[in-house]
UniProtKB/TrEMBL annotation:
One of its GO terms (molecular function) is porin activity. GO terms for cellular component: cell outer membrane; efflux pump complex. InterPro entries: OMP_efflux, TolC-like. Belongs to the outer membrane factor (OMF) (TC 1.B.17) family. Residues 1-21 form the signal peptide. It is found in: Cell outer membrane. SUPFAM superfamilies: Outer membrane efflux proteins (OEP) (SSF56954). It comes from the Bacteria. This is TolC family protein. It comes from Flammeovirga aprica JL-4. Keywords: Cell outer membrane, Membrane, Signal, Transmembrane, Transmembrane beta strand, Transport.
Length: 450
């Protein structure tokens, strides 16, 4: 019994040591690059896009294989009863017989209106479209992850700001108690400050919940199950570039035309539609093909004068071969070819109009991003001035309150105004950072916070 107790005690100590050691292991903090790379590797939509690329590669490979000949082998064996014509000796037979036929057919297309080459060209272009569509998807995910990452950074700073506000209110409570004991302030101020502290605590809970929601949103984008220990890296030296150079909208737009994958993809789609139009035009041209055939057979009814005609001997003797050259000329097909050509031309025009529409939308996006960045910068400057003014106002009201010439209500208002000013500064700071990153993105730069 004593040994068992000693063993259990030792096991408890060891287990506690292991758990303690595990507690000391630092939890990995994800950088923005980590989050983006993980999302691109595990996002379901990206994986579906990769499958589309594989399908396009298979289609291209098969289009090239259409240049190869077709080879077929055939074999059939039949048991015949009653009267029938034996194809090997051209006589009628009435006995039950066994027939076998073997053959090999080879066929190749020599000319088909250049449709095979145009199909290969179209599939090559479709592969580029699939690659660019996947790149567009990756860009969208990168922007989404960056937005959610910045939202977490903002919420973290906001939580710290609200904590400082709570600490400030708690400090003011202690000072007010001293002033009340000295007879300089009415006792009612104590209740008002306690109410303010309660409000600050509620605000802190709300902001902490908002921070958790931000982490949940990022986890979902990464296709991860939410873990309370999941955290991101604090970005060192991430400051707002107050000297940011705003390029002209037209210059950003011209650059984005060469960097945005959706524009390139649509340009390739136009080329695809042209290749498909040529395929339909090729359908009205003749098709030239050639081929050959090897065949032989066996019949149990066929006999030699000297006796049985063996299976292998018949196969060798019945050997037959043929070669053919075929020319197929389309004359009338219910106007189907003409209809297909007309539809292909319409598809090409639709692709061209879609490109114009995409370019117009891209210009609007760049224009809006530029305007949003300018507005965010103006908001940031206004928020800085508001912080300066609210700080000065708070210090002034606080001194008046301590001197007994102001009430607790005025002090609370000044404190809340100061908190709101700092909150607006944080929001405008991260908004401006994000807006400038979007502008840089349109010029082909990868989103980074460093």
């Amino acid at each position: 019994m004593i040994r068992l107790i000693n063993f259990m005690t030792s096991l408890f100590v060891i287990s506690s040591s292991i758990l303690f050691a595990q507690d000391k292991v630092p939890v990995k903090k994800w950088s923005l690059v980590d989050c983006i790379d993980y999302a691109l590797s595990n996002n379901i939509d990206v994986q579906l896009g990769l499958l589309d690329i594989q399908t396009s590669k298979i289609d291209l490979k098969q289009a090239k294989n259409e240049r190869l000949p077709e080879l077929y082998g055939s074999f059939n064996n039949s048991q015949n009863y009653g009267r029938y014509l034996d194809p090997f000796n051209n006589t009628f037979a009435t006995d039950a017989t066994t027939n076998s036929n073997l053959g090999v057919d080879l066929g190749a297309t020599l000319f088909t209106g250049n449709r095979i080459n145009n199909k290969i060209k179209a599939d090559k272009l479709n592969l580029q479209v699939s690659l660019l569509e996947n790149e567009k998807l990756k860009n969208d995910i990168s922007i989404l992850v960056s937005t959610q990452y910045l939202e977490i950074l903002y919420q973290k700073e906001l939580v710290e700001l609200v904590k400082k506000q709570l600490e400030l209110s708690q400090t003011q409570l202690k000072k007010t108690q001293i002033l009340i004991e000295a007879g300089k302030r009415p006792k009612g101020d104590l209740y008002k400050i306690r109410t303010q502290i309660s409000n600050d605590k509620v605000d802190l809970i709300d902001q902490e919940n908002a921070l958790v929601t931000s982490f949940v949103n990022l986890s979902q984008t990464l296709n991860l199950e939410y873990d309370p220990q999941f955290d991101i890296q604090e970005v060192e030296h991430m400051t707002l570039d107050e000297q940011y150079t705003f390029k002209k909208v037209e210059d950003i737009y011209k650059t984005s035309l060469n960097t945005m994958p959706e524009i390139k993809a649509q340009q390739y789609r136009i080329k695809v539609s042209k290749a498909l139009e040529k395929i339909q035009e090729g359908a009205i041209l003749p098709t030239l093909s050639m081929g050959g055939n090897l065949s032989t057979g066996y019949s149990s009814s066929r006999q030699l004068p000297e006796g049985q005609y063996h299976y292998m001997d018949q196969l060798m003797d019945n050997y037959n071969s043929s070669v053919y050259l075929s020319l197929s000329i389309p004359i009338f097909k219910k106007f189907q070819n003409r209809t297909n050509i007309q539809k292909a031309k319409i598809d090409k025009m639709q692709s061209e109009l879609t490109l114009v529409k995409l370019k117009n939308n891209l210009f609007k996006e760049v224009q809006n991003a530029h305007s949003d960045a300018l507005a965010a910068f103006a908001s940031y400057n206004a928020a800085k001035q508001a912080v300066t003014s609210s700080n000065e106002s708070y210090v002034f009201v606080k001194e008046k309150y301590n001197a007994g010439s102001s009430d607790i209500y005025e002090l609370n208002i000044a404190s809340l105004d100061r908190l709101e000013a700092y909150s607006n500064l944080l929001r405008s700071k991260y908004t401006f950072i994000f807006r400038t990153k979007i502008l840089d993105f349109y010029t082909g730069k990868r989103i980074s916070l460093n």
